[in-house]
Amino acid sequence: MKIHSVRYNFIMNFIMTASSILFPLITFPYVSRVLLPVGNGKITFVSSVTAYFTLFASLGIPTYGIRICAGLRDHKEKLSKTVQEILIINSVTMLIACAVFFLSILLVPEFYEEKELFLIHMAGMVMNMLAMTWLYNALEQYSYITFCNLAVKTVSLALMFWMVKKPEDYVLYGAITMFASSASYLFNFIHARHFISFKKSGTYEFRKHLKPIFVFFAMSAAINVYTNLDVVMLRFMKGNEEVGYYNTAIKVKTILSTMITSLGTVLLPRLSYYIKKDQKSAFYQTIAKAVNFVMVLGIPLMCYFVLFAKESILLLAGREYMASVIPMMILMPTVLLIGLSNITGIQVLTPQDEEKKVLYSILWGAGADFLLNLVLIPQYASSGAAFATVAAEFIVLGVQCVYLRSMVGSVLKKVSVGKIAAAVLAAVIAGWCIKRYLDAHVIVTLVVSACLFFGVYGGALLGMKEKFVWETLRSMLGTR
After folding, report:
1. N or C: which end of the chain has fewer CB within 10 A?
2. Whole-model pTM?
3. Which of 64, 72, 2 is nearest to 277 (CA)?
């Protein structure tokens, strides 16, 4: 089994991440105009509810599977046995989740109204069990999952433009979305035979997995509270239309956060491997580079989309979604906060078996998110939910930094914060000039402003000889 370099894995994962970004960028402007805020709100509401059941069905397996399998990738027999044990546990929890989910559809009036959409999402939830992406990530086999993912998304894109034509087609859109996210899972399951055996060998040991799985489950549950609860609370307090506005703002935040955290997906198995092999020097060196990556990319993205929030919403969704502009501006700091907490929590604490500390930080954030949603949504609707989300992410990162206070200082010393701030300031001034003096179509405004903003930012960093940017550039050019 060939293990590629971090650079190769990052490129493959970046291609997959880019497809995950391009798919909604292509589909969302079309779908938002066809389905309108109400239809868009229904899709978002059902997805958010389903996320809770999917969370229970998968427990903490997606993250735990990466960590445990990464340490066993050099031992096929042990790896195969571990994968079988995890799959059996997952099968049991999936059956329970599906039974409760089906009863909920029948018993809750708001769910029964959209029973077709809920049943489609339940089918996707079942398919999720076969995904085994945690195994592929642990083995750093990004080529296969990248190209398989691209193929499915291409077919889904064609289906969407062919079949979704009017607001009543929101159920069809939900089915196509489920196909896009889960059609490759069956192929993943079959292809896994290249790396493991499904033949039973020895006695299964389920108990050793249960404690860490439930810890990771608790982490995921708390995260889902402040990533989906705001949508559910908005639906019950303000209705589908407000959810549609909020979802548009969340969509932009999610796309940007996915870009920022794409490196983390690649690093977790490698960092877990370093810890198992006691290679601490390589571990901390990699973490420092990850922080640099998030700071250099996250800060300008956050600032640009605050400055051009109105134009971004106009392009993505149209004038019917102008109520999404303020929530989007409020949400933008989460791009940087999520990027940093992904490093401190998932890339630093988790590989060192400190997932309980990650859980505590998430519980603090989830609690704050719930209370703030309760207070702010009745008066400020989607803007209140956005503020609660930012506060929750800030608290999560703050608590994790307290746990890692002995390391945070030394890592930040390797980040050129002053140079990044100066470069961003120059870029913001250039962007503001475009926003004030360029009177053109929204597409022209965004293209010109993005080229100027990020051109000035990148040029300033190169001019100031920012170390991380220069090293990355030399690496890409193959020079020293």
Report:
1. C
2. 0.69
3. 72
Strands (E), 137-236: none
Give, to the nearest 10 degrees, the angle between helix 6-58 and helix 170-182.
120
Give domain limits for the chain.
6-195+203-415
Question: C-alpha distances in angstroms, 84 versus 71, 80, 386, 454?
Answer: 16, 6, 41, 47
CB 442 within 8 A of CB 315: yes
Give exposure, 375-387, as e/b (b: 16+ Cβ within 10 Å).
Answer: ebbeebbbbbbbb
Q: DSSP letter at 141?
A: -
CB atoms within 10 A of CB 476: 9
> Residue written as tokens 């922080």?
291
Q: Which residue has the tokens 């008066």?
A: 379
Q: Which residue has the higher pLDDT, 340 or 406?
A: 340
The rounded distance, in Å, linking the Cα atoms of 123 and 130 is 12
- CA proximity to 10, closest of 277, 286, 352: 286
Smallest Cα–Cα separation from 356: which of 450, 218, 456, 246?
Answer: 218
With both helix axes pointing from N to C terminus, report the angle between 467-477 and 442-463 in degrees, rounded to the nearest 10.
100
Closest-CA residue to 75 (of 191, 172, 195): 195
For residue 260, which of 344, 157, 343, 326 has the smallest C-alpha distance? 343
Residue whose token pair is 């735990």? 64
Distance of CA 189 to CAs 94, 142, 194, 206, 348, Å? 16, 15, 10, 21, 30
From 183-192, 260-269, 446-455, the region with the lowest mean pLDDT: 260-269
Dihedral through CA 388, CA 310, CA 43, CA 334, nearest 10?
-30
Task: Report d(CA 267, CA 318) in Å as an integer.
Answer: 37
What's the residue count for the chain? 480
| Contact by Cβ (8 Å): 86, 61 | yes
> Do residues 117 and 44 make contact, with C-beta atoms less than 8 angstroms apart?
no
The torsion angle over the Cα atoms of residues 459, 18, 157 and 306, rounded to 10 degrees, is -50
Taken in order 85, 91, 94, 99, the sign of the CA dihedral is: negative
**Among candidates 423, 432, 413, 438, which has minimal Cα distance to 469?**
423
* CA angle 450–455–459, rounded 5-degree value: 160
pLDDT tens readout for residues 434-479: 988 888 888 899 999 999 999 999 999 888 887 777 776 666 555 4
* Distance between start and end Cα atoms, the chain: 30
Instruction: Give CA separation, 455 vs 22, 309, 325, 431, 435, in Å.
Output: 22, 19, 25, 11, 16
Indicate the Cα dihedral angle 405, 414, 285, 295, nearest 10°. 80
